[in-house]
Amino acid sequence: MWFFARDPVRDFPFELIPEPPEGGPPGPWALHRGRKKATGCPVSIFVYDVKPGAEEQTQVAKAAFKRLKTLRHPNILAYIDGLETEKCLHVVTEAVTPLGIYLKARVEAGGLKELEISWGLHQIVKALSFLVNDCSLIHNNVCMAAVFVDRAGEWKLGGLDYMYSAQGNGGGPPRKGIPELEQYDPPELADSSGRVVREKWSADMWRLGCLIWEVFNGPLPRAAALRNPGKIPKSLVPHYCELVGANPKVRPNPARFLQNCRAPGGFMSNRFVETNLFLEEIQIKEPAEKQKFFQELSKSLDAFPEDFCRHKVLPQLLTAFEFGNAGAVVLTPLFKVGKFLSAEEYQQKIIPVVVKMFSSTDRAMRIRLLQQMEQFIQYLDEPTVNTQIFPHVVHGFLDTNPAIREQTVKSMLLLAPKLNEANLNVELMKHFARLQAKDEQGPIRCNTTVCLGKIGSYLSASTRHRVLTSAFSRATKDPFAPSRVAGVLGFAATHNLYSMNDCAHKILPVLCGLTVDPEKSVRDQAFKAIRSFLSKLESVSEDPTQLEEVEKDVHAASSPGMGGAAASWAGWAVTGVSSLTSKLIRVHPTTAPAETNIPQRPTPEGVPAPAPTPVPATPTTSGHWETQEEDKDTAEDSSAADRWDDEDWGSLEQEAESVLAQRVCVNSDHKPSKSPESDWSSWEAEGSWEQGWQEPSSQEPPLEGTRLASEYNWGGPESSDKGDPFATLSARPSTQPRPDSWGEDNWEGLETESRQAKAELARKKREERRREMEAKRAERKAAKGPMKLGARKLD
C-alpha cells in the first residue's frame, strides 16, 4: 500500500548542507557540501537530477557512478556511498574542493608553493598510470575541472564520466557535447583518416600538458597558447614540451614521465615528494628506517603546508606511536605539528598521547617530554596534571641520570601553578629538600634553589614561612658558587614574603657572612641584597605605619601574580647556570655539599699572607668550562688582591706567626681524606677554591711609626693587649645539612676554642695512641717469640 512506501532520499544516511552548490565540473553533476547524519563528518555529494529527454546524459552519469564505485586507488576520488532513484543520482565522496577554487583561494592567501604543485601533479600522473597501465582505461577528461583537493592538500582525479576501455571492448570514446571540455582534446582527434600512429595514452598525456599549463598560468584561452610555457618552472619545461608535442607517438607513458621528473634535479625531486612517498609506504618500512625518517622530519615541517601537516603527517605520527613502537623520536615532530591545531583539536588528538607517554619508562622519551613541556602545558587541566602527570614526573627526582633530574627540576616552573596543595607544599618540597641537601651535582642544586625562588609565590603561607628562609640559607653554604648566588637571589626575589623580624634576625646575618665570600659574584649580589633589605628596614623604622603594608604578602594566600618579581630576579640563574649544567655534568662531576670545604677570605694588599690551609681540591667556577670574560675578571681581581677594599687594613704579622705554627701543627696530623666516590685528580691541575685569592707576600716588618691593628681599642671595655679580633676569623664552615628536611638555621659564631688548645689536644691523643700500639706489639712478641719464615704478620 502507498502508506508503506519509504522515501529513499529521506532515509539516506547523508544530508546536503543548505548552501549554494560549489563550482563543480562542467557537465551534468552539481557538487554540494554534506555531512553524515549520525556523526556530522563532512563529505562531498555529487548530485545529478534526471531530466526528461536527456537519456544520453543520464547514461553518462550512471556510467560515471559505476566507475567511481568500482575503482579504488589512493589518487582517485574516494567513493563512500551512493543513491540511485528514478529522479536523481547521489554520489557521496570524501570532502573535497575543486582544484580551480582551491588554487584561487591559495593565490589570495599568498600563493601556492611549487612543492605542493609538484606533489599534486605527481598524484594525478600516478592515477593516470594506474588507469592506463593497470586497468587499460582511458580517462578522456583530464582537465582542471576533473581534479579535486581534499583537506590535506592531496590532489584526487575525478570526472570519470567519459572514460572508456583502451582495448575497444565498449566501443569508441563517448561524445562529450560540452565545448568547455572539448577544447582539451588533442589535435589528432580531428583527423578522421586514422593514419596517425599513436599510443593509448597519447590523448590523456596531451590533456595532462593542458592541465600543467593551467595550473601555472590560469585558464587556457586556446590550444595555440600551449606553445608558450609561461610561468612553468624551467625544470619542468622539457617534460612539458614532450606532452604537448604534435607527434602523439613521442608522448611519454605516465610511468616514464614520473621517472623523468623524479630524476636528480627534476621538478618532482624534492623533500616534500620524498616525505609523501615514505608516508605512503610507512607500514612496510623497517623500524630503523622509520626512526631515521622521524628524526629528520621535524627539520622539514616548517617548509611543508599547514593542511598537509595537520591531516596527513599528524595521523601517521599518532599511528607510529600507538602501534609502531616509534618511541621518543615522534615527540619533536608531534609537538611541531601540534602548533597548527586549535585548542579543541589539541585536547582530542595530542593530550591523550602525551598523558600516555609520561607513564613510559623510556628515558629518552621522558627527557624529551620534560624539555618540550612548554609547548603543551597550557592544554593540560589541573586534574590531569595532579593525577596522571605529576606522579610520573616526580620519579625523575630520584633518577640516576643527572640530565633527567635537571629537566625534572626545571619542569616544576611550569607544573607548579597547576599542582594541588598536597603535591605542591608536601610532595614537591620533600624532593626539593633532598636535592638541595644531597645531590652530588652542583648545577642541579643551584637550579633547585632557583626554581624554589620562582615558585615561592605559589606556596601556602605556612610552607613559605617554614621552607624559604631555611632553603636559601642552606644554599648560601653550598660549595658550588652559582648555588650561593642563587641563594642570595632567592632571598631578593621573595623579599616581600618575609616579616621584618625574619629580615633582621635570619636573613641579614646570612647575607653578611657572604660579604667575605671567595667569589666576587657572590659578594656583589650579597651587597645588593643587603642594601635592599636594609632600605626596607630603614623605611619601616622611619615610619612604623608602613609595617602592615610591607608585610601584606607574608601571610597572604598563594597567588600566581606574586611570581613576577621572582621571575625577573632569578631569571638569569636559570639561563646562565642551566646552559652550563649539562656540560658541567658531562665533563666535571661535583660532590655533595658535605664533601668539600670553603677556602678562606683573600689577604689584602700589604698584609703578610698566612700559610694556606690545605683543603681538598674542589670544583671551582674557574676553569676551562668558564667563559673567557670570567677568566679575565678573575685574573684582574687576583692580581690586585681583588681591590674590593682600598682602605689600609694595617699589619697582622704578630698574629701571623702563631697562626702559622698552629695551622702547620693541626694540618700535619689531620689530612683531608679523599672521598672514595669521587675522583678529584682531574681538578688538581685546574686549581682549587682559593685560586686567585691567596697570593704570596713577603714577610716584611711594618714601616716605622705604623700602628698595628691590634693596638686599637675598638670600642669595647677590654684593653688592646688581647690581640687582634680578626685573628680568630676563619673560613666559612661547610655545614652538613640534615638530609630530607630543610633543617634549622645554624648561626654559630666565631670559634671559641683557640687553635693552640686544639693542636695540643690532638698531639696528646696521637701520643697516647702510639704508646698503646707499642705496648700491644711488645706483648705479642713476648708471647709468641721470634716469627718463623712464612708466618703471617698479624699486626
TrEMBL record:
BP terms from Gene Ontology: vesicle-mediated transport
Protein kinase domain ranges (all copies): 14-314
CC annotations in GO: centrosome; COPI vesicle coat; endoplasmic reticulum-Golgi intermediate compartment
Region Disordered, annotated ranges: 541-562, 591-646, 664-795
Bias (Basic and acidic residues) ranges: 668-677, 752-762, 769-782
GO molecular function per UniProt: ATP binding; protein kinase activity
Keyword list, A-Z: Coiled coil, Cytoplasm, Cytoskeleton, ER-Golgi transport, Golgi apparatus, Phosphoprotein, Repeat, Transport
Main location: cytoplasm
Compositionally skewed regions (Pro residues) per UniProt: 601-617
The keyword Oxidoreductase is annotated on this UniProt entry: no
Compositionally biased spans, kind Acidic residues: 742-751
Subcellular location: Cytoplasm, Cytoskeleton, Microtubule organizing center, Centrosome; Endoplasmic reticulum-Golgi intermediate compartment; Golgi apparatus, cis-Golgi network
Superkingdom of origin: Eukaryota
General function of this protein: Regulates COPI-mediated retrograde protein traffic at the interface between the Golgi apparatus and the endoplasmic reticulum. Involved in the maintenance of the Golgi apparatus morphology.
Family under the similarity heading: Belongs to the protein kinase superfamily.
Protein name: N-terminal kinase-like protein
Species this chain originates from: Macaca nemestrina (Pig-tailed macaque)
